[in-house]
Amino acid sequence: MKLSEGVEWGLHCGVLLGFVGPDASLPTARLAEYHGVPGAYLAKHLQAMSRAGILESVQGPGGGYRLARPAADITVLEVVEAIDGRESAFQCAEIRRRGPSARPAREYRVPCSIHSLMNRADEAWREELRRVSLADLMGQVVAGASPKGLEQGARWMQEVLK
Amino acid sequence: MKLSEGVEWGLHCGVLLGFVGPDASLPTARLAEYHGVPGAYLAKHLQAMSRAGILESVQGPGGGYRLARPAADITVLEVVEAIDGRESAFQCAEIRRRGPSARPAREYRVPCSIHSLMNRADEAWREELRRVSLADLMGQVVAGASPKGLEQGARWMQEVLK
DNA sequence: GGAGTGATACTCGGATATCTGGTGTCCGAGTTTTCGCGG
DNA sequence: CCGCGAAAACTCGGACACCAGATATCCGAGTATCACTCC
Question: Do B85 and A9 count as a contact with CB atoms less than 8 A apart?
Answer without folding.
Answer: no
